[in-house]
Amino acid sequence: MTPLPERAGRRCHNALNALHSALYFSPALGKELAPYGIDDPHAVNLATRSAPLGAVGAGTVTATFYNYSHALVARFVPEVWDAASPETVLAARLRAADSTLRHLLGEETVTCPQMAEAARLALRAAEGCTRSGRPLYAANADLPTPPVEQAPHLALWHAATLLREHRGDGHIAALQHAELDALEALVSHTASGHGMNPVWVMRTRGYNERDWAAA
């Protein structure tokens, strides 16, 4: 077997994760969920990422997301499922991914042969993932794969989501081994110079400056 180039996994992650995570910053996602009464940005994020798990409670979401404040999660979960079922949220998520990618990449790109090739390669890579100890990956792996022939951009987005969540689930194991709790993990990541802005992290993850300073 030909060895992979050095840091090939990280380079692939950097490209595919941008494709996956664009959805969570897209106005299309909020527009899709607003008719169901899900309009708070925290609720939108928590619902769309946890929907593959089903109508779970706050504890499950806090555990699988790892770095979110449980108090923040519990403000919206499980009540969000009274507004829209996980199946409804998943359908809205896929519609938002469709419109977002068409807007960012253009119609010619989302339907080109190279898009289909990229989708097939990413799906093939995802075949190497395993479910054990990877709850968010496993939940997404149980979802139907958009057909490459009809929607190659959505097939690629699905594959990118599988690979991203598999990697994220692995991060939890690494953080547990390092004995870093949720907030310590965020502080460490920010201190590395490669993480997110502390103000943005505290606002989106449900912490305050006293929490941050203590960690």
Describe what is shown at a glance:
With 215 residues, the chain is mainly alpha-helical. The chain has helices spanning 8-21, 27-33, 41-50, 58-65, 70-76, 80-83, 86-105, 107-110, 113-126, 135-141, 152-177, 182-191, 198-205, 209-214.
Key descriptive features of the protein:
about 220 residues, 2 domains, about 65% helix
List the helices and strands and how they pair.
Blueprint: H1 8-21, H2 27-33, H3 41-50, H4 58-65, H5 70-76, H6 80-83, H7 86-105, H8 107-110, H9 113-126, H10 135-141, H11 152-177, H12 182-191, H13 198-205, H14 209-214
Helix pairs in contact: 1-11, 2-7, 4-5, 9-11, 10-11
Describe this structure in words.
With 215 residues, the protein is an all-alpha fold. The protein folds into 2 domains: 8-177, no CATH class; 179-215, no CATH class. It is built from 14 helices and no strands. It has helices at residues 8-21, 27-33, 41-50, 58-65, 70-76, 80-83, 86-105, 107-110, 113-126, 135-141, 152-177, 182-191, 198-205, 209-214. The longest helix has 26 residues, at 152-177. The mean pLDDT is 95.
Alpha-carbon distance between the two ends: 45 Å
Whole-number total of structural domains? 2
Q: What does the average pLDDT come to?
A: 95
> What structural class results from the helix and strand content?
mainly alpha
Main sheet? none
Structure summary, number of beta strands: 0
What is the helix/strand order?
Answer: HHHHHHHHHHHHHH
Overall 3D shape = globular
- Please, what is the oligomeric state? single chain
The number of helical segments is 14
Helix content: 55-70%
Strand content: under 5%
Low-confidence stretches are none
What's the Cα radius of gyration? 18 Å
